[in-house]
Amino acid sequence: MINIQSLTFSYKPGRPLFENLNLQLQPGHIYGLLGKNGAGKSTLLKQITGLLFPDAGKVEVFGEVASERNPSFLQDIFLVPEELYLPKVKIKQYLATRACFYPNFDHKAFAAYLKEFDIPQHQYLPEMSYGQKKKFVISFALAANTRVLVMDEPTNGLDIPSKSIFRKLIAGTLTDDKCIIISTHQVRDLDNLIDSIVIIDNHRIIFREAVETVTDKLSFKVVPQLNPAETVLYADSNLRGHAIVTPNQHQEHSRIDMELLFNAVLSNRQSIQEIFN
Amino acid sequence: MEFKDTQAIYLQIADYINEQILLGKWQAEEKIPSVRELAVTLEVNPNTVMRTCELLQQQEIIANKRGIGYFIQSDAVKKIIAAKKAAFISNELPQFFRNLYLLDMTLDDLKPYYATFRQNKLNGHEN
Question: Domain HTH gntR-type: where (chain B) (predicted)?
Fold first, then answer.
């Protein structure tokens, strides 16, 4: 559904952010895009949505070249940015002037989402708090019913009950023909929603695996003591003991710890790559 | 639902469904909530719930009726209890016996506690 080949891009000459970056994403999945600050997560999302253009290589979404920004492309993709710029209008006016760009926009669902998030229908957008604005844009994005939905740090600014509502709404909107991409640092907010992990580092995609594959090949556990005989790919020691990542040699069915995985991939890339190839 | 850190989510969802069946909240021959409904309730990816349903189907606890959804098999309770018993005996009993042994207790010492527990259960108290 999304096909990025040999993408090269830099904001400043001589300092490439992406070099020959390749990434293929399929419908029916929720991808979690992880990376350090400045690794290029938001930039990659902007490339996918046609807001930035490649210096070289290509970005295609359902066969359309993103940078051409054809109406047939734009009406089927939605980006929830991290920073929101909303016009000085009421919700009703926003809807009247924006929803028409999305042929599959579901007005009934939009009203239901606002109600779930407890946002009054007659709000004036500039008077809303950051969290409320975020919930408004998320509601609009989900109601737009596009085949590709891209969200940059969507849980930032949401309070605890709203995060739970967010998870319910996302769980309810994923269908076989949709692709949802979420970039986040707050992996614990979303770790049961994300089914595939994409890690970006050092100008490239360095890891892209289904959660199922990760837990087939790796085991995540907390042990009171490190066993010198056991291969440990990454360890994080705290009061509870040692949170470790090891090769899954005994067909254990552990629960993925995405923070631990992220640290393991960044610090021990070669061993991890050997296990997955 | 609060998930534990240790076990894969799809297995924890299987435990959740099994428990609904054992508690009689979901009855044999009845349809269970759809994959989507379960995903929304539990705030998890529908693909994960799908994996749970495939597992439970393999274990013949639920069966897929094409186009309608998953139904609970007539002997589901029997199958769940048998599987849970086997797991209890191999996973939890050794630790429990070890404690009994360390505390120098006999099985007879436990009888009054278990009797009180059962009585509370029958009276409809929690735990």
Answer: 7-75
Task: Judge whether A168 is closer than 8 Å to chain B, CB to CB.
Answer: yes
Are A26 and A155 in the same domain? yes
Which residue among A29, A30, A167 places its CB closest to the CB of B43? A167
**Do A107 and A178 fall into the same domain?**
yes
Sheet with A204-210, edge to edge strand ranges: A77-80, A148-152, A179-183, A29-34, A196-201, A204-210
Q: Whole-prediction pTM value?
A: 0.88
- Looking at the fold, whether A141 and A259 belong to one and the same domain comes out as no
Domains of chain B, CATH where assigned: 9-76 (1.10.10.10)
The ipTM is 0.86
Rounded CA separation A23/A265 (Å): 17
Q: Is A25 exposed, middle or buried (0-12, 13-18, 19+ CB in 10 A)?
A: buried
Contacting residues of B for A29, CB less than 8 Å apart: 47
Q: Is residue A158 located within the same domain as residue A230?
A: no
Q: Which two tokens stand for residue A153?
A: 């740090």
* Residues of chain A contacting residue B47, judged by C-beta atoms under 8 Å apart: 28-29, 174, 195
pLDDT tens for A51-104 read 999 999 999 999 999 999 999 999 999 999 999 999 999 999 999 999 999 999
| Bridge partners of residue A79, in order along the sequence | A150
Owning domain of residue A242: 211-276
CATH number at residue A67: 3.40.50.300
Residue A195 has its nearest CB partner, among B3, B42, B47, at B47
